[in-house]
Amino acid sequence: MRIGVHGKEVHGKQARFVQQVFETLHDNGAEIHVSAKFLRYLKAPQSRKLKLHPFETGTSLKNFDFFLSFGGDGTLLESVTFIGKHEVPILGINMGRLGFLATISRDETERALENLLKGNYKIDERSVLKLLSDSDLFGGLNFALNDFTIMKKDTSSMITVHVYVDGELLNSYWADGVIVSTPTGSTGYSLSCGGPLLYPKSESFILTPVSPHNLTARPIVLSDSSKISFKVEGRSKKFLISLDSRFESIDESVKLTLKKSPFVVKLIQMEDGHYFKTLRQKLNWGLDIRN
Questions:
Q1: d(CA 64, CA 155)
Q2: What angle do CA 255, 247, 132 make, to 5 degrees?
Q3: Taking the C-alpha atoms of 161, 167, 168 and 172 in order, what is their torsion angle to the nearest 10 degrees?
Q4: Which of 67, 68, 180, 217 has a 20 to 30 A CA-CA distance from 95?
């Protein structure tokens, strides 16, 4: 069994916790491959005894059985960039606070690993955005699990984003920017800008304006079979675009089109886990000081 691992910086108790997970995997015959970035934080003598294998961005992980992400949702999004089109199932172990994607707490990890090794889990497939452009952007990592954004840069002035859906003009947004979100990303930046929550299997994208000048410009839900293209104008000739947490600076001449990626991200869920349960826990639904 080959298992890939990525994580955020760890110290003290967190480092010992990661070490315990590695020992459990090693005792069950797993070959452990760790991102070079994460491996720099794991310098304990015990780690060297486990023969951890480093890998870099761009290394093919197609023969891996599982991938573990130690951190929050941001760390899991970084893990997706290592996996790419290979659809290796990811288990997100939450070392932070909220965690809509990394849902396994440290207290639940031992049981989760036991179920993982026994095959007692389910796969939650999540759709992915793919960016097409006439420029070489994002070093080939032109996909996003959460969202794509176009934002103003270096100015307090608004920008105008002309949005086309399957070649038809949807609207010209005078705003700080726009967000195109997957159902997975509906609990992120889009939600904070007034976008709706989407069930992961809804086969839709959300287009959400950021601080629009026209208050009737509201979020809209689009079919994920659509191709969404953009033309950007503004006083500044430079704009920011992002895929998840990765940013690039572009000018108004760059052509941008979004569509659904041919591959999915596979999130490992325990048998008793469900998206609705995560929403109730993370958003404190049903909690009231009166009860």
A1: 45
A2: 30
A3: 10
A4: 180
Distances (CA, A) of 140 to 66, 80, 246, 264: 23, 13, 12, 17
pTM: 0.92
Nearest to 150 by CA among 183, 172, 126, 127: 172
Contact 267, 92 (CB under 8 A): yes
Of 136, 228, 135, residue with least CA distance to 181 = 228
pLDDT tens digits for range 4-44: 999 988 888 888 899 999 999 999 999 999 999 898 888 75
Give the 3-state secondary structure of residue 19.
helix
Of 77-81, 219-223, 240-244, 282-286, the one with minimum mean pLDDT is 282-286
Domains of the chain: 2-127+264-282 (3.40.50.10330), 129-260 (2.60.200.30)
Strand order from edge to edge, sheet including 53-55 = 53-55, 31-35, 2-7, 66-71, 90-94, 265-270, 121-126
Q: Which of 85, 116, 87, 106 is nearest to 7 (CA)?
A: 106
67 has a pLDDT exceeding 80? yes
The answer to whether residues 182 and 202 touch, using CB atoms and an 8 Å cutoff, is no
User: How much is the average pLDDT of 158-184?
Assistant: 97
**Confidence bin at 46 (pLDDT 50/70/90):** low
Residue written as token pair 């991102």: 35
Tokens 């859906």: give the residue. Answer: 165
Active site residues: 73
Helices (H), 28-121: 36-39, 45-49, 73-83, 109-118
